[in-house]
Design goal:
Length: about 775
């Protein structure tokens, strides 16, 4: 896909021509082949003409025409007699000054020349470049409209846009707002318009954030209108534009500068506390409101009882549930019984049967055993039953025996049982009460669960009061993992076991209320002895960071040297890499910035990240000349972020899917001041531009006359010849250039002629 821009140099040239009343002259197309050019990368507005070695051809413009007063088009047609060469750069230039006005980057293409001897037909190449700026047709003296020799698709494209708009009105009507979109409500002695999406005459209107309204000086009542239009330029993307208008009356349709505007009222403001909503809700908002009846053809649930009768044994209908009392008495033949009302009846039946069986058993035992008390017989039965069980059943048995038997009988029984167990169990076997230690259960003591094979214990699911081994499975390091605490209110510790990680210790806590883990925090990081990159000029994965939205922040600090000379301060330095998210939901990416305090060589020369899901990002760095020269690292994060070192990663080529950093390394110290330099040519009265990121007060200028004129110079001030004088200077406070040629006619006065000047601006801080 090709990209086209107007250059900064052209903006200056156009302004000079406008001020001087000269026409803008662009008369040549230049084709060039730039090695390694990325056709999808942004074109720098300061880009100039390529070198002669790269230029494949320079050709006069074939045709030019006016599209509208603010846009003109230049065209070229290269026939089959021209070629053969490759190109990926097209420039529209002024051939006298080599000033480049417009630049197009394309994928590499070939212009083929006809060669009948070799049966090569050749091709014809056509290219058009549109320049859009205020009064373009007037400034270029182009009065012939482009439609006499070029196809005009504008009407068709506009018809396509309007067809989509009209189709939207079939769904959303004149206007329609989803939920609270564009809702006007009072707030802080004023009013605010809520964010959201609505439709006005088929145009989608998206409000990304709340819009405050200053109505302190407004006399009430007033109406708030939403004005929308679909607008754009000839070679730009068109989109819906919105604006808020507060007035008593506003037309629902009007045309401004050829663009149709539609409007609808949002609200009437009667006072700061009395605002009437005038929006039309969309069909979904109306449909989901339980107060409305979107389907009047169907009976509502609340009306079913009125029109449908109860079920019976001979007809269908609604089912009514029986109460517990009705189930117990069994007097209704239409109501249904649920498990909840049936269970008490079953339990009562079981209890009754059990009691009857027990009474019958006691009667039989009394007849068989005669004078033996029933309570004694019960105890014997309980002993026989309990001894077949374990744990709580045995404990309950001894409690019952202690209550029922005389003390001397119980003590004798206890000694017999104890002696039997001591003779049966060896010292290495579990005792009968091993689940109870000093009255506490096993969950009250820390348990060693032993070593786990890779990936080891998952830190998120580790049992409470236990110690395990984890291979950084939801934990920062490969090593011991310990969790202590009470229930979900617990603390987790993780330590690295390797030589590089043995001095690292991190902890985190679990919130028992939300049952969620807080981020890991490094107590002792140990990064002071960590060498992190191995190969100069290659990419290394430094870490994986978890950074949710709401402006999470992470910092990586790299301390290193670029030499070994004692007493040389600039051979050591610190470089900090800052990572920060925005407040998009979900998190939409990172902003990366680097700040260095100087030194002969930066440790990291390029940076980037790769999103891997769940708000996690892999952080990559391009190593400089000395990647392994005794580095000292450390890192820290905000409370809502989490950091995980990768270790001594092996250098690789640039990873796929990498998003490069947006900033530049800022270096400040007494030896290495940040500078910016621009050069160029300006006409008399022009203003020298300021390098990006600097102010006018930080600039210094060098100027010289750019004059190719010839003439005789007379140095005899008293002679009868014409005298010539040049003046070239710059106003240091505002950057305005003076570039003049003076001709003094002996005895007849002076003539001043403006000309161009070369300039160089150097900015420092």
């Amino acid at each position: 896909m090709s990209k086209t821009i107007l250059t900064t140099a052209f903006a200056t040239y156009q302004a000079q021509c406008n001020a001087a009343g000269h026409p803008v002259i662009l008369d040549e197309f230049v084709f060039a082949l730039i090695p390694h050019q990325d056709p999808n990368a942004p074109i720098h507005p300061e880009e100039t003409l390529p070198t002669n070695e790269m230029i494949k051809g320079r050709f006069k413009i074939t045709q030019k025409g006016m599209i509208n007063p603010d846009a003109v088009v230049y065209s070229i047609i290269l026939g089959t007699e021209i070629g053969s060469w490759d190109f990926n750069w097209i420039g529209l230039v002024n051939s006298d000054t080599n000033l480049v006005a417009a630049i197009t980057h394309t994928v590499p293409q070939t212009k083929v020349k006809a060669n009948p001897a070799n049966n090569i037909e050749g091709d014809t190449l056509t290219r058009n470049i549109i320049t859009s700026y205020v009064n373009a047709a007037k400034l270029t003296d182009i009065n012939v409209t482009a439609d006499v020799w070029q196809l005009d698709f504008n009407q068709r494209l506009m018809a396509m846009d309007d067809r989509v708009r009209l189709e939207n009105t079939d769904t959303y009507g004149v206007s329609s707002f989803i939920g609270d979109a564009w809702l006007v409500t009072p707030e802080n002695e004023g009013a605010v318009i809520h964010s959201g999406t609505g439709y006005v005459q088929g145009l989608q209107c998206i409000n990304l954030q709340r819009i405050p309204l200053d109505i302190n000086a407004v006399s009430f009542p007033q109406t708030v209108y939403l004005d929308v239009s679909f607008d754009g330029s000839v070679n730009s993307e068109w989109h819906t534009k919105t604006r808020i208008v507060i007035t008593n009356h506003y037309p629902d349709k009007q045309i401004e500068k050829g663009i149709t505007h539609y409007s609808v009222p949002l609200a009437t403001i009667n006072s700061l506390s009395d605002i009437t909503d005038l929006r039309t809700p969309d069909w979904r908002t109306y449909h989901l409101n339980e107060k409305n009846d979107p389907h009047p053809q169907y009976a509502q649930k609340s009306d079913v009882d009125t029109y449908v009768s109860l079920t019976s044994t001979d007809k269908a209908g609604l089912i009514e549930l029986a109460t517990q009392e009705e189930v117990n008495t069994g007097i209704d033949n239409q109501k249904a019984v649920t498990p909840a009302t049936l269970k008490p009846v079953i339990d009562d039946t079981k209890n009754y049967a059990s009691e009857q069986a027990r009474q019958e058993a006691n009667r039989v035992k009394s007849e068989i055993y005669g004078g033996i008390p029933a309570t004694t017989l019960d105890t014997i039965a309980e002993v026989a039953e309990a001894l077949t069980e374990t744990g709580d059943a045995v404990a309950s048995l001894f409690q019952q025996l202690g209550e029922k038997l005389p003390k001397t009988v119980f003590d004798a029984f206890k000694k017999t049982v104890t002696d039997s167990l001591n003779n049966k169990l060896g010292k290495t076997e579990k005792a009968a009460d091993s689940s109870k230690l000093d009255g506490l259960g096993v969950t009250a003591f820390l348990r060693d669960n032993g070593w786990n094979a890779s990936p080891g214990q998952d830190a998120n699911t580790q049992p409470n009061m236990s110690t395990d081994f984890s291979y950084a499975n939801n934990a920062p390091y490969n090593g011991p993992l310990t969790r202590i605490g009470s229930g979900d209110y617990s603390l987790q510790l993780n330590n690295g076991y390797s030589a590089r990680n043995e001095r690292r210790l991190s902890f985190r806590s679990k919130n028992g209320d939300s049952r969620s883990w807080n981020p890991w925090t490094g107590i002792m990081t140990g990064e002071v002895a960590f060498n992190g990159m191995s190969t100069s000029g290659q990419w290394h994965k430094l870490a994986i960071v978890t950074m949710p939205n709401s402006a999470s922040t992470a910092v990586i600090e790299i301390n290193n040297g670029s030499g070994f000379n004692v007493g040389t301060a600039n051979q050591v330095g610190t470089q900090k890499i800052y990572l920060r998210t925005g407040n998009g939901t979900p998190a939409t990416g990172l902003t990366i910035m680097s700040i260095s305090d100087g030194g002969l060589s930066l440790m990291v020369t390029d940076m980037g990240y790769r999103a891997i899901g769940n708000n996690q990002y892999e952080i990559y760095a391009l190593a400089s000349q000395y990647p392994d020269a005794g580095l000292a690292w450390r890192a820290w994060t905000s409370l809502n972020a989490e950091f995980k070192w990768i270790g001594n990663a092996v250098g690789t080529a640039q990873p796929t899917g990498l998003t490069k950093w947006l900033g530049t390394t800022i270096t400040y110290n007494s030896q290495y001041k940040q500078t910016g330099v621009l050069t160029g040519v300006l006409w008399h009265g022009g203003t020298i531009p300021v390098p990006a990121g600097f102010s006018r007060s930080q600039c210094h200028y060098i100027v010289s006359l750019n004059d190719s004129g010839t003439g005789t110079w007379d140095v005899d001030e008293n002679g009868n010849y014409n005298h010539y004088r040049t003046r070239c200077s710059v106003n240091q406070s505002n950057g305005v250039i003076t570039a003049l040629r003076d001709v003094v006619f002996h005895g007849r006065g002076n003539i001043e002629t403006a000309c161009g000047a070369n300039y160089m601006v150097i900015a420092t801080r």
